[in-house]
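Ticket #4471: structure export looks truncated?
Reporter: QA, pipeline team
Priority: medium

Steps to reproduce: submit the single chain below to the structure queue and open the exported record.
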Amino acid sequence: MELPTAALVAELVAKLDDNLREAYEERAGIMEFDAKLPRPYAECLALLDILYRDPLALAGITVLQIELDGQTEWLITTDLAYARQRVSDICAEETGVVDLVDVINEQYGGIAMLATVG
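Actual output as written to the record:
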């Protein structure tokens, strides 16, 4: 992995998960080589593109869609490894990583209340 040249970009890119980091690097490379942009400019635009597509990319929040007892549920986490272990422990099945905004809008009509998991 190549480190971004601008300190601010590097600091923000370090907060991306592995998938978003890979997408960032791919976009920066394409912009640098195909569009012939200077590397620092390409990195800034690539980061903006990631944030445009996923505004919560730097929030450290992941939403898992799971099936539990025949019902679809959504699990919001800041620790993906722990959440996946918990899903396994309760004999649920992860069906995907989904967008938090979409879940709140589509499943809860724009407002949702969080509850703790025991």
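Status: closed, not a bug. The export was complete when the record was re-opened. Leaving a note from the reviewer for reference: Residues 62-108 form one domain.
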